[in-house]
Amino acid sequence: MVLQVSNPNDVKIYTVSGTGSRAIPDWLARKKRRILKDDPEWRSRIELIQDFEFPEASIRVKTTKDGKFVMATGVYKPQIRVFELSEMSIKFDRHTDSENVDFEILSDDWTKSVFLQNDRTIEFHSQGGIYYKTRIPKFGRDLAYHYPTCDLLITSSSHEVYRLNLCQGRFLNPILTDATSGVNVGIINPVHQLYGFGTEDGRVEFWDPRSRSRVGLLTPSFPDELDNQSLSVTSMEYKNDGLSLAIGTSTGHILLYDLRSSNPWLVKDHQYGYPIKSIKWYYDDVTGDKGQNKIISADCKIIKIWDKENGAHFTSVEPITDINDICLVQDSGLIFVANEGIQIGAYYIPALGPAPKWCSFLDNLTEEMEENPQQNIYDDYKFITRKELENLGMDHLIGTNVLRPYMHGFFIDLRLHEQAKAIANPFAYVDYRENIIKERLEKERESRIRATKKLPKVNKELAGRLLHSSNKKKSNKEIVDPLKDTRFGELFLNPDFEIDKNSIEYKLLHPTLTSRFAHKESDDENGTHYDKNELYKEESGDSKTSESSETDSDEDLITQVNKQRRIKKIENGHTWIAHSGNQKPKKIEMKIGRMVGSPKDRKNKEIMGNMEMSFKIKNKNNKQSLDDNDSHKKSQKRNRRPASKNVLRGLG
């Protein structure tokens, strides 16, 4: 089962019954009730009160004073229906000769009632049926019953208000008002029994039933911009406190008055411009609810619920059919709406009050049904465009009952569409099965293979090295992604922080990184030629060596000097000096240590801090060069600083 719910102004409104709850297209109308079992919308419907409807429209709806019955009138044919709330079903219905304008329930239950017909007829109904029928001189517009005197007040299209005494069974002298076009509405104050008559001229007259004389005259006033508008009083309602009065006008305004003042304390605009048809003061004795101090007003398009103190909007109900009358179920948040649709509307607003006692299950029912999404009434149909219809070879069916035109395409029966699709593409299932298999294989591969992380566009190489180093340091502890560190976020987002590998600073900090053009001879911009064919490459195998070389200041300084003199390391600790032309290359030996020996030994040596650089010319005799290397190593060993302070340990 499903229940339609709306949420205007964050207030939930449940459509228990009404035209909005069964919005079925005309071409889906059922001709036979036995086939309704195949309709999922019909199967999941909620029918709070059985047959709570009329063949065409409902005109008036009211509840009895004991709260056990609902009486409503409607068309067509004109009829009266009484519903028993304890059984949640219709009790009986009666037909009348003319359409009902208004009615009053004279007893606490449904057994005594009076109906005002549009042919100037007044019908009295008892438990057995029509009890008495009479007529009035003018067409009646409204009814009001005065219980202390048993007077039935009938307003009409004349300036007279007819008085029919039900105790004596005769008409009394009418009440003569100053109206020129008729009296639209008449009400009786429930506390002090003061009569109130709203006229077509836009005035309200107050009459005392004891003296049968007028005691007051009220002319509704608007702000300056509305003073010139011609208006008439279309609805009125007293509050149970005996002092508050609500007046509805034909311009769509509601004015709230205190009977002790001639100026309204609040003017509410419905903003539709339609005459106000009904006004209800919400019950103040309902405790613990947001409905206190609220007024419910309705025109033919919308029902608005607002605050009586400041006019603040609380929520609104907008049925899809015109509204004729509204009725509040006592001490609850349920509202009955007579409208131009088949069903009588029933709207439940939990924010106003709880569910009535006779349907207390409605509170739990609304919560359960709200969780289930409403089924689509088009589940058995498929919407296709004209192009898809041509691809299926069914364009010849356009204009037949098989296709239902809708907007830019057609509705077609789902079973017929599946058959046509199978005929047009017999291998569709095979393709579908292959796609499903491929998707499953891809999911399995993703579970076996670790997905590579996307590297940022800025400093992509640095990000890769950081991720690689973090993966090497994996442990049982949670690993922090270095790319998500907020302290260095701009390093991988802002292009201004892009590392320039051609800058001198980068080359000083990374001396082991060189060009990757291996096995190629290259010339620089000045035409300088390098003798060796292979350039130095970074030794990535030993991470400790690379780290120490990057942090060793001595080697950084040497690298800077070598780069300035275009020196590249090639093999076995020897270096080669770049040359121009046909000059022979010279080999340079570089040693790190203190400068020792006599000044004679320091010949042909260049001193830079604690580094020793020896310049030797390459000899043709390889043996002599080897002897020179051995002698140099021995002298270096002999002149090495002792490991401890005991100098004698190194003698001998």
From TrEMBL:
Skewed-composition ranges (Basic residues): 634-643
Location of the Nucleolar protein 10-like N-terminal domain: 3-372
Record key words, sorted: Nucleus, Repeat, WD repeat
Region feature Disordered, mapped onto this chain: 519-558, 618-652
Organism: Diversispora epigaea
Organism placement in taxonomy: Eukaryota, Fungi, Fungi incertae sedis, Mucoromycota, Glomeromycotina
The keyword DNA-binding appears for this protein: no
GO biological process per UniProt: maturation of SSU-rRNA from tricistronic rRNA transcript (SSU-rRNA, 5.8S rRNA, LSU-rRNA)
Cellular compartments annotated: Nucleus, Nucleolus
Protein's UniProt name: Uncharacterized protein
Domain Nucleolar protein 10-like second: 377-425
